[in-house]
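Thread: Newbie trying to understand structure tokens

Hi all, I'm a second-year student working on a class project, and my supervisor (Dr. K.) asked me to get a predicted structure for one chain before our next meeting. I've only ever worked with sequences, so writing a 3D structure as a token string is new to me. If someone could post the tokens and maybe explain what I'm looking at, I'd be very grateful. Here's the chain:
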Amino acid sequence: MRVLVVQHSSRRRRVLLRRGVWAGGEVLVTVGVVLLLLVVHQLWWTNRQAKVGAERKVEALEREWGVPEGGGAPDDSGTSGASSAAPEETDVPPRQPAARRATSAGPDWSQAYAILTIPRLHLRVPVAEGTSKQNVLNKGYVGHYSGTQQPGRAGNFALAGHRNTHGEPFRYVNRLDRGDEVQVETEDAVYTYAVDRILAQTSARDTGVIRAVPSSTVRHGYGYSEPGYYLTLTTCTPEYTSKYRLVVWGKLLSMRPRH
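---
Reply by user tm_fold:
Sure, no problem. This is what the structure looks like when written as tokens:
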């Protein structure tokens, strides 16, 4: 009878192989769990955290301005049709926004000073100065492009907001249609704009869309050629990427003083 001899080196290799496979499996599972937690944090927690913070800021601004309980911009009844020329009352200069008011410690560029309301999207979100991700956009706020006009003034009041994560205030701006109202509230007045044109996709470097007379430098024929009272909303597109920009333009319909 022949006896099978098993060498210790072969047995040791099999044991090491099993241990290696087991360890590799544990590493893969751990990496998978970590990635899942990162996705949950990015897609759910940052949204929840930013939305709660933005809602509280809107409430704080309303209390500061003495807005009646329930908030919301007053209705601009009897106003219809967009126009590049603003009503006469818009010639009254708005008060310097809080974001631009200097203090002994210098201006707080991330301080919200206005509220953007888009009824069609059930959106009501703070507006702060600048487009810094850390100080403005990641808080769930909408950021005002520094160097563009303030609401109600001749020129272009240009804003940016996240489309995904961190409150994603501009998640559904692609659903806006011509004629939809967009309201901007400040301490002194409520400005009502009407959506006029939409540029579904352009380069992230297309700075022409936020000029005083907005006009795409990439997609010729998109934009305007005459001075007016414009509103520009920009966000990333397609969703979950930052490769291109989606642009919504509006024109000022009316201005209603608070006091």
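A couple of things are worth pointing out once you decode it. Residues 46-92+108-257 form a domain with the Sortase; Chain: A; fold (CATH 2.40.260.10). The first strand starts at residue 112 and ends at 118. Feel free to ask follow-ups in this thread.
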